[in-house]
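Example record used in the benchmark description.
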Amino acid sequence: MDSRLNPYISFDGDARQALEFYKEVFGGTLALNTYGAFGQPDSPEADKIMHGMLETPSGFTLMGADSPPGMEHTPGSNFSVSLSGDDDAELRGYWEKLSAGGSVAVPLDKQMWGDVFGMCTDRFGIPWMVNITEPQG
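Model output (structure tokens):
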């Protein structure tokens, strides 16, 4: 397997719902592993996600988990997830789904550097940046 860089997101008990939502947005294969399946079958966290990974047909990888007991959860405070490329229709489709039910900080629009760009926070509190470049021809 090649090395890859991807976001890993901590959730406050709703990792399953969030990762299933992202699968609806991007498609692909979602693997969810619970704390119960990894040696904690009788704990209150047994059904929570210890590790989840979404691999999409476009080559995106997104990982996430429910924060373990005792770890502070501060959604969206130290990262954004960036989507970029030149497929206008694909990226606009992701934007529409991600921003639905969330909030838009920067509307998806042409920016001074020439690209179409927007920033939103989805309904799970995760900040996203979408940047659409002109196709190289």
